[in-house]
Amino acid sequence: MKKFQLAFLMVLFAGSAYAQFEETKFVVGGAIDYNTDASTNASSLGIRPSFAKTIKANALIGISGGFYTTVSKSDNSSSKNTNNLFNAGVYYQRFHGIAGDIFFNWQVLAGMSFMNQEGNSSSYDGKGYDFSLLPGLSWKVMDKLILNASLGGASYSYQTNDSKSPGYSNSNKMSHLNIRFNNPQFGFTYLIK
């Protein structure tokens, strides 16, 4: 079994990359992700536009932004929290050919985020720094269009937060390390030649 796993990894990472960005100068793209968590009764929706320059026949460097909103409700009461997150950053993405027009890709993203959470009687503002590693699969469906999919990845974030409610105010700092592979993301990349 270990030999099969090693052979599979060699195909993914050491395999020859197909020149999917040959003669391409820039790419624009976007992604949508949706997540629901039954244990916390929360659901989130996010959109992430991006713009990048090709630096090799199989690699991109670019900028990315995003808006995510999460709504959580309590089963036992009428309380509801809405959390809005804006982020922006730079990323590096590399593609490795698997077969034909199917690619394994990975993306490293570093950036800043700004958060606002509103509840029934409290508010919460925060800002932070994020670092993410996202593996995924891509399919070049047309000469200028690539479809992308990912189930999640690993991320680290450092945040400073200010929370306020009637008669109470607090500031704190937090860091989080998350590894999640239950957060599907679907997107596209359009090649500008």
Structure description:
The structure is a single chain. The chain is elongated. Strands 1-2-3-4-5-6-7-10 form an 8-stranded antiparallel β-barrel. Strand 4 and strand 5 form a beta hairpin. The protein contains 1 helix and 10 strands; from the N terminus they run H-E-E-E-E-E-E-E-E-E-E. With 193 residues, the protein is mainly beta.
What is the strand and helix layout of this fold?
Layout: H1 2-14, E1 26-37, E2 42-56, E3 59-73, E4 80-99, E5 102-118, E6 123-142, E7 145-150, E8 153-165, E9 168-180, E10 185-192
Antiparallel strand pairs: 1-2, 1-10, 2-3, 3-4, 4-5, 5-6, 6-7, 6-8, 7-10, 8-9
Helix content: under 10%
**Strand arrangement, major sheet:** 1-2-3-4-5-6-7-10
- Assess the beta-strand content as a share of residues: over 45%
Question: Which geometry do the CA atoms define?
Answer: elongated
The strand count comes to 10
Low-confidence stretches: 8-18
The major beta sheet can be summarized as: 8 strands, antiparallel, barrel
- Put simply, the count of helices is 1
For the CA atoms, what is the radius of gyration? 19 Å
Termini gap: 43 Å
Mean pLDDT across the residues is 83
Q: What would you call the structural class?
A: mainly beta
The run of helices and strands is HEEEEEEEEEE
Produce a short descriptive summary:
The protein is mainly β. The chain is built from 1 helix and 10 strands.
Characteristic key phrases:
72% strand; 8-stranded antiparallel beta barrel; elongated; 193 residues; 7% helix; 1 helix; mainly beta
